[in-house]
Amino acid sequence: TKGDDLLAGRLPAARISYDQPAAGQRVNGAIIALVRNSELDGLRKSMRMFEDRFNRRFKYPYVLLNDQNFTQEFRDGIAAITKNEVRYGILDSDLWGYSPSVTPEETTKKLEENKARYLYGGSLSYRFMCRFQSGLFFKHPLIRDLDWYWRLEPDVEYYCDLDYDPFVFMRDHGIKYGFTIAPREGRRTVETLWYHTREWIKNNTDLLPERSLVNWVMGTDGHYNLCHFWSNFEIVDLSLYRSAAYESYFQHLDDAQGFFYERWGDAPIHSIAATLLLEKGQIHWFEDIGYKHPGNMHCPRNPDMLSKCICDPAKSYTYRSACQTRFSKVNNMAKARMLEIIHN
Ligand code: GDP
Ligand code: MN
């Protein structure tokens, strides 16, 4: 009986029971986090909120990746947070390492030069991380067979109950890329990224669609305006990153040395690629998903959305963000028009 359970030091069974999602209403997807053993507390916090807001009901598996072996303490700490399946993966040197175009010696010099110029300017592991997240994570054996992913990081917060499956919503509406927050990147971290992007565009016009949302990232002056989707949250149809165009674009960037001699992030790279390869209707702002990663927060101001949330929309970064406003305003651009601008 209940009383005996309590006496035996056990908790009474949970009173909340959620309906199972209807059979078939699921995608072949997972929640993916790259994480260090030292970030156990931060990931437990993220997963606690993610489970409570969404995944306790929808039951997607987690894939946790690390360049080091996960400790038993880490696995125990995660197991205490979720009943859902957790798969652990290790990154070999083919996924976690230098671009073939750079040398460790020259990288050391550049890190020294850049360490005071921007956040993580002197960090080698941050470079490995950005390169992995940009072009390689979806090739990992635990991810290779998945069609969809939702990125999770340590120390993020989820504020709003989700009573539908964003993966299924995206699939049913032909959406391939979902985001919550769109800030502006620090110019110094991507000094030559747009130059190399333009070179790639000029030489690969056959890989580009007839129209795209590229003018969200490119002004009529032909420059990169530094807008990007903050990739610590992203829900993506992985066929985007596995496309011939994306593969070619990443290879071009990997050859251009900027992951190491600059500090190109996966967020601007994913964002440039998504807007270059997709149309407006294929990219979705999840305004209803209140979310915070250290630095910026999104909380919906629409009363119907806000009623399911525990956050303050007055503190939301997103309604003050120029890139976010631009996303609402901007429309698709024809390929011919883009090439005209790029060639100027
Ligand atoms: P920021 O969000 O740009 O400030 O960078 P983070 O430190 O949050 O790193 C982004 C993601 O990569 C987080 O999920 C980190 O846990 C993970 N990460 C960053 N560096 C490493 C690393 O060296 N090893 C592992 N295993 N994960 C890392
Ligand atoms: Mn982070």
Automatic annotation (TrEMBL):
Entry protein name: Uncharacterized protein
Species this chain originates from: Coemansia aciculifera
Source taxonomy: Eukaryota, Fungi, Fungi incertae sedis, Zoopagomycota, Kickxellomycotina
